[in-house]
Amino acid sequence: MFSTNNTYYYSLVATILLVLTFVFPSEGQLSASFYSSTCSNVSSIVRDSVQQALTSDSRIAASLIRLHFHDCFVDGCDGSILLDVGGNITESEKNAAPNENSVRGFDVVDSIKSTIEASCPAVVSCADILALAAEASVSLSQGPSWTVLLGRRDSVTANQGGANTSLPSPFENLTNVSSKFSAVGLDTTDLVALSGAHTFGRSQCQFFSQRLLNFNGTGSPDPTLNTTYLGTLQQNCPQNGNGATLNNLDPSTPDTFDNKYFTNLLINQGLLQTDQELFSTDGSSTISIVNNFANNQSAFFEAFAQSMINMGNISPLTGTQGQIRTDCKKVNGS
């Protein structure tokens, strides 16, 4: 047993460490009040900008949340997806296979950044703008709202190779997609909940046409596709047609954030292979979660909000790491 003196010593050390924890918060700690004294109107600036963008582009809400997702899955939520080639950036994540001619909304982010810079120069990171824009996009589309944790800083590097390998592909099976979520610390509930973002937005024919005629080399369509829905998709995406033709991810309420994505899965109307596999993979633990969200929109909204917070916590740069980019497209000084 410890002597009285040793016990006192260890108690004193523990007390000092506890005090230091509060005085010097650990790296990676985000806060809802991070900009309260430096840019208190940042949330309203972002929300107003997203609302304005929605008046001319009904797709922009889904596009902005996708930007945040594609940012966070590559080296964490650091704004690296926004960087163009230039200076020390020799390869942009924008040009990675999952992003090129697919991700969009960069002009809206640039507009938001310009407005914020005019009000609070060199204070708000581009990474935080993506997180705030994602929340605004969902809540303005009749979805849930949540308290966005802030304090991320911006990367001074990009990782095109990481974007090519870390982002889930619409052609992958559930096992592979689950592994990619697990690799960034997200669990099965996060996977199903975040997939629910496909309750609004569009997808190009090229990302699901393999399901329509010759699925996995069988010479037949994907058997998990509703036959009526299959006919509609074959009309929209004929063989040798334009692979960039857009289709609603949710054919019932394409611009509203609701739980229709999950009710669509129950009747085999998931557009992407990765969507339908959440419900049609025999024995998968995702099936019960899909059923729950299909039958209980409140449960989906609650889980989605928490999963967005979880995703926003993936390896953020904080403290003195990275920088606050004044132009989201390039590293300061380049």
UniProtKB/TrEMBL annotation:
Cellular location(s): Secreted
Domain Plant heme peroxidase family profile: start-end pairs: 29-332
Cystine pairs: 39-120, 72-77, 126-328, 205-237
Site (Transition state stabilizer): 66
Main location class: secreted
Binding site for heme b: 198
Cofactor(s) recorded in Swiss-Prot or TrEMBL: Ca(2+); heme b
Name used for this protein in its record: Peroxidase
Organism: Phaseolus vulgaris
